User: What shape does this take?
Amino acid sequence: MESRESELKGLGADFVFGFVQSVDGERDPRNLLLAFHIARKIVHEGYDLGKFTEELFEVTSCYFPIDFSPPANDPHGITQEELVLALRVVLTGTPRFAEFLLPLIIEKLDSDVQSAKLDSLQTLTACASVYEHKDLAQFLPGLWASLRREVFQTASERVESAGLAAVGTLTACLSRSVLNSDSEDSLNVFLELVLKDCQHHLCEPDLKLVWPSAKLLQATSTASYRASHRVAAAVLPSLIEQYNSRTQVSHTIQLGRSIIINVGVRLTFLTVGHDLINSDNDVISLPTGTGAFSLEEVISVCHSLQKIAEQAQDTEETGGVFHDVIPRLLGLALQAALQGENIPTNSLLAGQTASRAVSLFLDGDVSFLPENTIPAQIQLLKVRFQCDSRSQSQMVCLLMGCVCWLPRTVEVPQMDRLLLELLELSCTCDHPLSYTSAAKCYAGLVNKSPAGETLKRISTELDSASSPVRTQAFTLLLWVSKALLLRYHPLSTTLTDKLFSLLSDPELGWLAADGFSLLMSDSPDVLNRGSHADVRIMYRQRFFTENSAKLVEGFNAAVQEKKSGYLKALSHIVNNLPRQVQLTELPALLPLLLEALSCPDQGVQVSTLSCLQPVLLDPPSALITQLEVCLTSSSQKVRIASLRCIHALSRFPEHEVRLWPALVLRALAAPLDDHKRVVRSEAAVARNEWFLLGSPGGR
Amino acid sequence: SSLKQQNCERLQTAKDEDEDVADPIDDREIFDLIRSINDPEHPLSLEELNVVEQVRVRVDDQENTVGVEFTPTIPHCSMATLIGLSIKVKLLRSLPERFKIDVHITPGMHTSEDAVNKQLADKERVAAALENSQLLEVVNQCLISNARTS
Assistant: This one.
């Protein structure tokens, strides 16, 4: 065949026919080996099979599966293995055999003989790697039934893994298909079969089919991008639901993690995961796009990563996954940023990554980022005014994620230099996200670092607020105030006093008022207990006690238009106090708050009402006394508002207010005769409600 | 009740806003107090059933008197006393103590109007009635306010 190829081929189908006849009935292994080699050549090297395809197949396949035990002292040394492999090459050599081979495989898989099973599975794996979907399409149900059986009921690990391998290559083969508009999607058909039989088992943790099902699903999802999408989309919702609802979650985590770790296109999974986590019920939209990920995908990946991080067990394995994925994300993010797009993100990192991040941001060291085309020596913190590089300066929010979340025991390298750079960036950059993130990052670091030279610099910098960067300076002031307030650093008073004084500032007044919300509430991305910030206990309470008088004074002294700022600030502070403190402090502030209710500014009304709300949830009797005082106010609006509050109080659970009716009814007698009709009407309504309280037939 | 009430919601005038101007108590104000009292038997208000009407309300702020005439739905209405009591109680709870409250059946509208009127006028009888918890229960149920539009 080697030397006379063309002549032999010239014989056409006759050659094949002759060959078939001569092989028929052969039993000598040496001859068979030779025959298989020839057959392989016939099949692989384009000999004309004519109408003898089936005959050629039959004459070779009748030896399948090979069951050969060489005699003792066999001088020729032919092994079963050799024969098996030689035959396999023939059988799987051409898709034209598919229609014969596949039924044969299915048949032989039924055999009780383990070696036959194994051979069949391995042959299947081999042919699937050369076949196309159309060759397999009609046999999918049968193949799946057998494969499933082999994995579900296996007694042998070898058979199981061979079965899984077969499933994988099968899936991969089907995934290679190019779909026409009228062709059926075989991959879909196959995955439907798989999911139908495997999916529900995942939710039954005590039955023994969980792991076989999981392995099968894993085998399919690792085979190709398309398959992984399909499988993850189908399986994840229930896994997540399971995780959320069960106390015994270890196996669910393992399942989930095995899918995470083993899926070839890891980030695709996570993107799907994000859609699922965010989806209502069954509305799932799979992202399109292969190769480079779009920004939305990266963002959603980050979000879902965060959620997974929050829920995953803190083990070495999980940590390993994240340590691997995060730098990839950093790299992706940087690359996307260089293409000029926005990425807000959030991540958890350990000290090692932090120092990498620092060297990246300070020195442009990109060596640790895998597979990147980022120019070395990139200057991420220096960018200031060039508008088209603002995307780079935004990256400082990633830096914040890296360095501000370290435990205080981990030292941040090059701290002083870092602080200097951040200070500069926050005071001079013109891009809001960038300078805010720089301020936050600076604050996060300052909160943990020991007091020293650095802190003195802040006050000098801030006092020189010149007009073009006032907003930036204010942002920095706010964040640093928070950082220092949390740890009750002496310098914090100077800074917060500055904030108070800004309440009447024509330009920054409203910002300052809202800033108090930021000062008092928990910030998710920096300066919180989770990021190991230095937070002293009861700092909010202390702040309130030391400053509420100041605020009331400011309010009383301010002109009408400015009063709302003080109220806003006050309500922000009060809203964040612990409940007990609110209950004791609020009644004294009641006149102020009630007056605030009548302020036309909706923002003030809202913040005042939300100030009052905690008190109303669990009212102390001091409240009634205070409200009574308000009933004598000269402003009818105040009287009306107090009456409404008293009315509202009647809605409380009976046990909380059962001692009050007499008190209230007496208090409400006078307002019934108020000289203003509206007040009388409110009083009547409230009083009637209180009569009904605890009275038969009443509420 | 809402339809009638919505159409007749009292309009605020500039005087109402003025702190220093005193608003006298007028007939409308009294009527507003009693119009949405529930009928004990029907899921309708006294206004909707025309049991009370603004024309049959008289108040004299200076003299501290209030007079309400109510018209039972049918001449033999057995609920007449109860309805009258509900009106009286509502006014007692809603008006300053200085007022003398007179509630009686519109003349010629009920077979036992004298007897009912006498009961309603008797302070001690009224007080005793309200100490009867079953009676009080029914009265309260008539007085439970429907959603007030404000």
Notes: Confidence is low (pLDDT under 50) at residues 257-293, 312-321, 334-350, 384-388 of chain A. Residues 10 and 202 of chain A are 58 Å apart (CA to CA).
